[in-house]
Amino acid sequence: MAARTTIRRAGAAAVTVLVAAGTAVGATAGHDAGRGGDQTASQQSGHRGDDRDRGRGGKDRARNVIMLQGDGMGLAARELIRLATEGKDGRLVMDSLDEAGWTATDSADPEDAVTDSAAGATAFSTGVRTFNGAVGVDADGNPVPTLLEDAKRAGKATGLVSTAQITDASPAAFGAHVTDRYDQSEIARQYLEESRPDVLLGGGEDFWLPAGEPGAWPDNPAEDPEEQSKGTEGNLVERAQELGYTYVSDAEGLADADGRRLLGLFANEEMFQQANEGEGDVYSPEVPLVDMAAKALDVVSRDRDGFFLFVEEEAIDEFAHRSNATRTIEAGQALDETVALALEFQEKHPDTLVLVVGDHATGGLAIENVDAEDESGEGATAEDGPFPVPGTDLEFSVDWTTGGHTGEATPITAQGPGAERLSGPQLNTDVHDAVQRAMLPRGHR
Ligand SMILES: [Zn+2]
Question: Averaging pLDDT over each range in 16-20, 29-33, 262-266, which range is the top one?
């Protein structure tokens, strides 16, 4: 808990700085049909658009969108994080937003009933259900415009942040179009040459460099000897730098970076070590999620036209795959700290829509009384715990049903312009539609 409070304060300090900058550059929303290159021009043309919109719900317009995702964060996972962190009477920050609903998670896979993260994120990013493994394409494999691309077209800054490989399925669904989520070097290439997010922060350096070029993160490290550069599209770090990105690979570099376009790769693969309890499981990202998000906000909030920022905590899903409740809770706490940062930004910039989503649930976890007589499962799905309930003498166990995903709905909370459209039951594709309506003037949808 102590570490948690400290990180939260660090996040708050970062926000204070960028809030001052944001106020100086302009309190008026601007939307531009053209590209965001010339901020003054887009600001001027944006004024007319705003006046026209104001008569029919312009106050609903979200200049900025911060979309936060707990990968694999179903209701049971969210409650696990709450109970273990805040106790029975406490509340997570992510549960304090004004609006709440739930979203069905179905994909349009011809073989599997339950979605994967690629199809789940594609439903959120494009409003189209597709087959599992598909990234930013419809069920026929055709590219579909994403919320990030919509934002870019409206002149907004854009960013992707994840503790997974930044080319992993969820962020990829916002900035790339491929039929196979594992085509990660192609996803990276599309980021640089096509969708061009201003900020890319996460893991996955292995996909940006060809075999034999280890880069800043050495090949075959002791903690995971299989990790090594395996890019298929040449040296994409150099390509990024040619295209104007500042490249950083550690926390210090990120803190010092001051470019308007930023690429940070902070691990060979994920920014944590996915494993069962006591078998090399580590959640200790080179840069905490909240610090990546703070830096991303610092950069994208300089754009007068606003921004779209997607921030993901991947470790909730990946540790649930290993039925590792301890690390699932830790990752959930990291997400909650990041939601606090987003809400502090939103308080200073009320024209910001903040939403917290989960693409699917993972592990089929159940919070249970500690009971030696109760079946525990075996191997990967054995019970975890007991865990203390803060503020009580009580303990609970976590039982797991599967090492895979499960098909229930996931909670969604939201605050800011357009948030009310996200209350109540939603399809995953509705989430896209609500964000798009909030973010774009009528003529841009
Ligand atoms: Zn998963």
Answer: 262-266
**309 Cα–ligand 1 center, Å:** 22
- In the residue annotation, 45 being an active-site residue is answered as no
Rounded Cα distance between 209 and 238, Å, is 9
Count of CA atoms in the C-beta half-sphere (13 A) of 398: 29
Asked if 176 and 195 touch (Cβ cutoff 8 Å), the reply is yes
Token pair listed for 89: 């009477």
Exactly one of 117, 170, 249, 397 is catalytic; which is it? Answer: 117
Hey, where are the domains in the chain?
A: 2-18+61-362+409-444
pTM of the model: 0.87
DSSP label at residue 59: G
Which of 114, 111, 113 has its CA nearest to residue 74?
114
Q: 323: which DSSP letter?
A: T
**What whole-number distance in Å separates Cα of residue 412 and Cα of residue 73?**
10
CA of 355 to the centre of ligand 1 (A): 21
Q: Of all residues in the chain, what percent carry a pLDDT higher than 70?
A: 86
pLDDT digits (tens, 9 = 90+) for 297-356: 999 999 999 999 999 999 999 999 999 999 999 999 999 999 999 999 999 999 999 999
How far does residue 72's CA lie from ligand 1's centre (Å)?
6
Tell me the pairing of strands 405-406 and 361-362: antiparallel
Tokens found for residue 147: 């919320």
Q: What is the pLDDT of residue 58?
A: 52
- Rounded to the nearest integer, the mean pLDDT of the chain is 88
- How far does the centroid of ligand 1 lie from the alpha carbon of residue 339, in Å? 21
| Distance from Cα 315 to the centre of ligand 1, integer Å | 9
Could you tell me the CATH superfamily of domain 2-18+61-362+409-444? Answer: Alkaline Phosphatase, subunit A (3.40.720.10)
